[in-house]
Amino acid sequence: MGRMMFVSLPVEDLTKSVDFFTALGFGFDPRFTDENATCMVVGEDSFVMLLVKPFFKTFTGGKELADSHTHSEAIMALSAESRGEVDRLCDRALEMGGRPSQEPMAEGFMYSRSFADLDGHQWEFLYMDPAALEQS
Questions:
Q1: Which residue stretches, if any, does this entry annotate as coiled coil (predicted)?
Q2: Which of the four CATH numbers 3.10.180.10, 1.10.274.10, 3.40.190.10, 3.30.70.330 does domain 72-136 have?
């Protein structure tokens, strides 16, 4: 049996974050959305909870939040169906106010590009060529 995955991220402005990820093609589950949080649907069993910072902090046991503009916390990597889709999604993220994170990486069967979202969280879209992967 597979597991569902939920990643929770603190955000400064929930509306701006929803607009940003909507522009990248993501949808949101209204059952888990209010003024404090929303559930971004990544895949059938993968979700990202975007929580406003004060609400996120109620889940940290008193720990301070990392400043994701100056510290790395995690890199969320999502698959794409082609190199073109990687470029389209990353270009759109930059148009919507995201910032470049790393130089594009092309290594044999894999191509990826990275960006930081409005809150500095690092994201990556990657394409793995199945034919080239089998030859590796």
A1: none
A2: 3.10.180.10
Amino acid letter, residue 59: F
User: Going residue by residue through the chain (136 aa), what tens digit of pLDDT does each one get?
Assistant: 689 999 999 999 999 999 999 999 999 999 999 999 999 999 999 999 999 999 999 999 989 999 999 999 899 999 999 999 999 999 999 999 999 999 999 988 899 999 999 999 999 999 998 887 677 5
Tokens of 88: 């389209």
Residue 26 tokens read as 């993501």
Contacts of 62 (CB under 8 A, 6+ apart): none
CB atoms within 10 A of CB 82: 11
- pTM of the predicted model, to two decimals? 0.89
Which CATH number does the domain 1-59 belong to among 3.10.180.10, 3.40.50.300, 1.10.3860.10, 3.90.550.10? 3.10.180.10
**Can you tell me the distance from the alpha carbon of 13 to that of 117, in angstroms, rounded to the nearest whole number?**
12
Q: Helical H runs in 44-98?
A: 53-57, 83-95
